[in-house]
Amino acid sequence: MGVAISDASGQPRTHTGVPADGGTALVTALIAHPCPIERAALRAALDADDRIRVVAIAGDGDEAVALTHRLRPAVVLLDDQLGTPEGGLVRALAQHAGVLALTRATERRAITALLRAPVRGCLVYGQIEGADLHRAVRAVAAGLGWLSPVAVAAASFELRARTRRTGQPGPAYQGS
Amino acid sequence: MIEVLIVDDNPIVRMALRGFLAGAEDVTVVGEAPDGRTAVATAQRLRPDVILLDHRMPIADGLSVVSKLAESSRVLVLTSDDADELIAGMLLGGARGYLVHGEFDPTELLRAVRAVAAGQGWLSPRSASVTIAVLREQASREQEDAHRAESARATREGFGLTRREQEVMALLCAGHSNAAIARRLLLTEKTVKNHLANIFTKLQARNRTEAVVRWTGQPEPG
Asked: pTM, whole model, 2 decimals?
C-alpha cells in the first residue's frame, strides 16, 4: 500500500547542508511502519512541524526501499518490526537516506543489536515526548543522531563493556 | 530526591544551572566545584547522584576526572566543546550524558538530569551520532579480531602439535625462557629443548621468533 505523496512545492530533496539545530530548511521524511493506525499517528505528529514534509508512507520493507530509492527522502522513520536481524533493510535504506529506527524494545541487547545496523538514531516508544520526534528527524537530516534515554543507556553500557573487554586503543591481544 | 553537584569554573554558569534546577521539586543542588580536582574531593564527600561536569577548567579538566567521578556518581557532561574526540573520551570514561551549552533549555536539562539519575542517559544530536559511530567501529574491530583468532586457530590445528607441545608453545609466546618453561611444566630443560626441536620442525621455523610468528598468525615484521 505504498503511497508517494506528491511534492507540488518542488522543494529540493536533500539531506545535506542543514544546520545542527535543524534550522528552517525543509526536511523530507518517509514513514515505514506495518500498522496503519500508528502510521497515521506518526504522519499527524510530523505534519505538526512545518519544517518537516512527509513525502511517502510504506507498509513493508520492499515498499520502503523502492520509495526511498525513487523519492530520496532525507530521513526514513523505520519501525523495527519491518527490519531483519541482519540489518539488510537498514543498509538498503541507508544508501539514500538517514535511517531513524523506532522500537518498542527497552532491553539492552535488543537495542544494541538495532544499533549495529547503519541507523542514525533510535527512538523508543514510550520515551518520545514533546518535540523529540521533530528534533530527532531534523538531527538525522543534518547528519547527526538521536537516541532515547534508554537507548543511550544501552549504547553507553556497550561502549564501556567493549572497552573493558578489548582495551583501548588497538586490537585485542591474539596470543595464547 | 536527586542530589546534584555542579562542576564548572565559571560562577555565572554555576548560578544559571542552579537557577534552571531550582524549579524542580525532585532535584536539589548539594554542592559546586570550580575545577576537576575539587570536584573529585567534593564528590567523595557528598556522594551526589548526578554530577554536571564541564570540560575546560583549571587544575584538572573534566576529561581527566570523568572516570574517577563516574565510579560513585552518574556524570552528565555539560560543556561548550563538542569535538568528536572529547565526546568519545567522556563516554568511554563513563559519562552517561552529554549536553552542549546553547543547545538546550531548562526543560531538556531537567529531562537529562532525571534520565541520567535513573540509570538511562541523554545525548545531544552530535554526541548521539558520535556514540553510534564509536559503537559500530568497536563492533567491526571485534569482528575482525574474531576472524583473525579463528583463522589463527585453524592454522594452529594444521601444525599438528601435541597437547604438551602446545603448552610449551603457549609459554614460549608469553616470553618465557627454556628454564622457566621447564619449571612451570615440571620438566627438565633437556625435555623442553626436545619439545622445541619438534615444534620448530612442525612449524618450519628456524628459531623461537619465527615459531611465535607462525603460531600466533601475526605477519612477519618488516
From this structure: 0.76
